[in-house]
UniProtKB/TrEMBL annotation:
The keyword DNA damage does not apply. Keywords: Glycosidase, Hydrolase. GO terms for molecular function: hydrolase activity, hydrolyzing O-glycosyl compounds. One of its GO terms (biological process) is carbohydrate metabolic process. The active site is at residues 21, 204. This is Non-reducing end alpha-L-arabinofuranosidase BoGH43A like protein.
Length: 458
């Protein structure tokens, strides 16, 4: 490896709470990780690390409303071919992050369900990832999701993606590829099928890596639940034919007694010394079957013998691996102020005012609530990062257009179908607790009158 190394302890998840579909690129001594963001704004969070242990949220690639609209990023509730229900939120899904000749690129899809399942694929770029200023989207035509870039040695640029077939019967998708002009988004070839997958079940999340003269094509298959897996194929020609590995699936928790379940959809990358790693989606399955903080980003070592197939180790909550001393004892990176703040879809900035020290926020109420399938409501949130979390707030009502006809408080928000809140109703002087899950039918509301005077500001 060429440099001093020692055994280093690592822990998972590397990015906890609402961080699915990780993609990683390593540039000039820093690892950068990007995840899906769906219907919340700002979108496409960027995390940075010097050592793969401490990750800092340094920015969001979609941070200007002029870049795109999330207005139609609703939530679908459908029945899968297995007969099980799927509740899925649309918006920004499955990004892939890349670096080529001084420029960072993110390729992703803005999905919505306005009558049909629409997929708007695009590329954004920046030369300064620390500056938090990414370009406007460059759109390109692709009938699917999970698009990824590959820059070949001859500077030709290729897109691989999960080409949609039908959602109610397997196979639902196949992997297609086209050559593209990275500047304009113009297709330089037709989209051609290069691999149907190994399991041929929800074949998604493709990435290509060129190693030892082979083009390796990684995919996620089996659906994003208990049958999720990594599969891989390779070819000496980027257009194929691709040969499936005899060792497929190269990673899965299906049928295994593992705490980290549903593992799949991720990325392979190298560190300072050429060691391979995987960043993967997974969930921490609790004893009661609850999935904790839903889909999170996990790190796992990869062994890749020369001329052979990669071996992705099972993700563990804690593990040890030999690593370069250059990855040890780095000072923590600094997160920009308010970088974690989240809003629902196309929020109205005029409804939110922060004091300079960030301790007080003035919110203007909206007439819509969490159950609105589109548009937005007045909501300022953060991703829940720990299974053991506490949140508190102090609220006052200020006379405005709605008078005292206002509810304000704390909420747990997933999407229009799933939310819960505790709030004070200033019109009735009542404390309200509400839970809403239209997918399961577990919805209810309790209201209790408050006895005594409630502090107000007129």
């Amino acid at each position: 490896m060429g440099s001093l190394s020692r055994a280093i302890d690592y822990s998972n998840p590397i990015v906890p709470g609402f961080s699915p579909d990780p993609s990683v690129v390593f540039v000039d001594g820093t690892f950068f990780l990007c995840t899906s963001s769906f219907h919340v704004f700002p979108g496409l969070p960027i995390y940075a690390s010097k050592d793969l242990k401490e990750w800092t949220h340094i920015g969001n690639a979609l941070n200007r409303q002029s870049q795109l609209s999330l207005k139609k990023a609703g939530t679908i509730h459908i029945t899968l071919d297995t007969g099980f229900p799927l509740v899925g939120t649309l918006g920004i899904v499955a990004p892939s992050i890349h670096y080529h000749k001084g420029t960072f690129y993110i390729m992703t899809t803005n999905t919505d369900h306005s009558g049909t399942y629409n997929c708007a694929n695009f590329i954004i770029s920046t030369e300064n990832i620390w500056g938090n200023r990414w370009s406007d989207p460059v759109y390109f035509d692709f009938n699917g999701i999970d698009t990824s870039l590959f820059f070949d040695d001859n500077d030709r640029v290729y897109v691989q993606g999960s080409w949609m077939l039908r959602r109610d019967k397997q196979p639902t998708a196949t992997i297609k590829q086209l050559e593209i002009d990275i500047t304009t988004g113009k297709a330089l070839s037709e989209a051609k099928e290069i691999w149907t997958g190994w399991a041929k079940y929800d074949t998604e999340g493709p990435h290509i890596y060129k190693v030892d003269g082979y083009y390796y094509l990684l995919a996620a298959e089996g659906g994003t639940f208990e049958h999720h897996m990594f599969t891989i194929a390779r070819s000496t020609n980027i257009w194929g034919p691709y040969e499936s590995a005899e060792t497929n699936p190269i990673m899965t928790a299906d049928g295994k007694d593992e705490y980290i379940q549903n593992i799949g959809h991720g990325d392979l990358f190298q560190d300072h010394d050429g060691r391979w790693w995987a960043a993967v989606l997974g969930v921490r399955k609790q004893q009661d079957g609850n999935l904790g903080l839903s889909r999170e980003s996990f790190l796992s070592p990869v062994d890749w013998p020369r001329g052979g197939w990669p071996v992705v180790r099972q993700p563990r909550m804690n593990f040890t691996r030999e690593a370069s001393l250059s990855m040890v004892s780095h000072p923590p990176l600094t997160a920009p102020p308010f970088v974690e703040d989240l809003y629902i879809r196309d929020y109205d900035p005029s409804k939110y005012r922060h004091t300079d020290d960030g301790t007080t926020i003035t919110l203007t109420p909206s007439r819509t609530d969490f159950t609105s399938p589109v548009d937005t409501c007045t909501f300022l949130g953060r991703r829940q990062r720990s299974l053991d979390s506490t949140a508190s707030t102090r609220i006052k009502v200020i006379e405005g257009p709605l008078g005292k006809n206002v509810q304000a408080g704390l909420a747990l928000y997933k999407d229009p179908i799933r939310s819960a809140y505790i709030a004070f109703d200033f019109a009735t002087n009542s404390l309200v607790y509400s839970i809403h899950n239209s997918a399961s039918g577990l919805s209810g509301r309790i209201s209790r009158k408050v006895i005594g005077k409630v502090e107000e500001s007129q």
